Structure formats: structure tokens, C-alpha cells
Amino acid sequence: MRNKPYIIAYTPFEEQTLEKLRQVGDVHVIDKKQGSFRDQLAQHLPHVQALIGSGLKVNAELLDQAPNLKIVSNYSVGYDNFDIPELTKRGIMATNTPDVLTETTADLIFGILMATARRIPQLDRLVKDGKWTASVGRELFGTDVYGKTLGMIGLGRIGTAIARRGKFGFNMPILYHNRSRSEAAEAELGAQYCSLDELLKQSDYVCLMTPLSPETMNLIGEREFKLMKETAIFINGSRGATVDEEALIHALETKQIAAAGLDVYVKEPLPANSSLLNMEHVVTLPHVGSATIATRDAMEALAADNVIAGVTGQKPPTLINQEVWRD
Ligand code: 8YV
């Protein structure tokens, strides 16, 4: 019988985060170098009270193996990897890391938009490859950003922060489609709510920032790409599965849309045989929206604070399923 709470960290964390967790519990780090991730996890699940990390699918099958689990702490704002109704039914707390990554992620997503529009990676490669031997020709000219229409699908915290950059930095009219209307965004940004189809037809930049859920799975597919302008640039900073990736590849191959900037994919890391890798008009980033040192440190600290609260009888600061909390 253990007398300290048993905590499993299944994503690499900084020593300072592990040290913080060790103040309240026995911490075991799953290290992929030590063998199969699944086997290690299976061995520890019967004893674990807290799980901390990102991306692990936490569903009934896993929970059946973890009868002592009190809290699952996601080191990310998105929690599509959690079966929240199942966790709630079992009285297990689920937490994520909102707010601390909002501005950093918005910076990066706006950065992809700029990089895709102005072909920054292609131009950088040209210079580094020693091919800058004359003035750059029209085939490498970009697309204007300033004053163009930005369509935001998903206007939550990060979506709103991206729209602010567009509105105040680049004078972009903002259209948005969201589960619910945001009077605050309409007042602050003059953002105009519209149907998904209207947004797709009118936007120069279509930026997808909606969380992944059964309702948003494959939200953008063949029909939606057909509705977009031929000059449209598509940006995805949400989750790969919100887009039908085959339909995206087809839309890019057939020039139904002009270009895409992507930080997320159906399968991550992106497989080496993905057609997206061979397209000059696609900018591919390796899921790094929140990846600055300061932001990742803040995410680690918040994810750890959630665990510490959860195993010491306090309410975790960013509890998702509030229903499970009883004083
Ligand atoms: C990941 C993210 O957390 O927060 C999210 O939802 O997608 C990212 O910030 C990050 O890749 C760490 O795993």
C-alpha cells in the first residue's frame, strides 16, 4: 500500500515540474526509451491516482484498468483525447491548460498565415540554396494580407486573439462562424457572424480554430473547399481531424484553393508519404502552436498545479468537468 498519491507523467516534463509533483506524490515518468509505452502504462494503471501529459486517449477501456484514478491533467488546452462523459460518470476530474497559451498560439497561427501568403519558407529556401541569382520572379510573388477578409471558424479564446491580430494589425474585416454568437467580439472587432457557407464564400483567409468534437469532425471537406474562393488561403490550427485531409489534398492539387498553412494533421507526426509534403503551396509546421519556452513552462506549471490540487483535496484551477467537484 502506498501512502503518497501515485502520479504518472507520460509526456517529457522539465525537472522543475517533476520536482513540484514529487512534493505531493510518488512520481513515475514513462520513458519511451525504456520499452513499449502501452506495456509501461498497463503496468502502472492499477495504482495510479493522477495522470499528467498530453494526447493519451482516456476512455472507458483505459479507465477500467485504473480503479484508483482521481484526476487526468492534460498538458494542452484541447481535450478531444478525453471521454468527458465517461470520466464524469466515474467521478474523475479532468483538467486542461487554457489561457496561458492563448496569445502565443495566436502569434504562431497568424505567423503561418503570413508565411503562407508571402511564401516565406519558399523564399528562405531559395536564398539558402544559393538560387537568389536575380530578382525574384512573379512565380514567387505572394498574396496581400492587409485589408483582406479573415473568416474565423471557431471564435473561442485563441480564435478571438487571432482575429484581433487581423483586425488591429492588418485592418482585416472579420467574419466568424461559431457554436454561439459572441457579442463581445462583434463589439470589439466589428466581427460579423455568418453561416459556415457564407463565411467560406466570402473569406480571403479561412482560419479553422474550432475544438475537435463529434460535431466538428470532418467539418471542412469536399463541399466546403468547393465553396471557397480559388484565391483563398486555408489555415488549420485546431486539430487535423476537423478537416477531411484527402479532400484538402484534392482541393490543393486541383487549385480549388490557392494555398494552405497547417500546424495539425490527421496523423501526427505527418507520415513521410503524405502528399502534403510535396506541395509548394502548403506550409507545414509540426504542431507547435504553443511551443515557446515561456508558454510551455506556464502550461507545465498549470498542469502540475491541477494534479497537486486534485490529489490533495483542493479544486483544480482549470477543472473541465465541474460536476464532479464536491467540497
Ligand atoms: C499541445 C495543443 O498541448 O494545447 C493544445 O491543445 O494542441 C498544444 O499546445 C502541445 O502540443 C503539447 O502537447
Automatic annotation (TrEMBL):
Sorted alphabetically, the Gene Ontology cellular component annotations on this record are: cytosol
Q: What domain of life is recorded for the organism? A: Bacteria
Task: Report domain D-isomer specific 2-hydroxyacid dehydrogenase NAD-binding positions.
Answer: 111-289
Domain D-isomer specific 2-hydroxyacid dehydrogenase catalytic spans what residues?
9-321
Q: Give UniProt keywords alphabetically.
A: Oxidoreductase
* Matching InterPro entries: D-isomer_2-hydroxyacid_DH, D-isomer_2_OHA_DH_cat_dom, D-isomer_DH_NAD-bd, NAD(P)-bd_dom_sf
Classification via Pfam families: 2-Hacid_dh (PF00389), 2-Hacid_dh_C (PF02826)
Cite a single GO MF annotation: hydroxypyruvate reductase [NAD(P)H] activity
Q: Which SUPFAM superfamilies match?
A: Formate/glycerate dehydrogenase catalytic domain-like, NAD(P)-binding Rossmann-fold domains
Which family does this protein fall into?
Answer: Belongs to the D-isomer specific 2-hydroxyacid dehydrogenase family.
PANTHER family per record: 2-HYDROXYACID DEHYDROGENASE-RELATED, GLYOXYLATE_HYDROXYPYRUVATE REDUCTASE B
- Supply the name of the protein: D-glycerate dehydrogenase
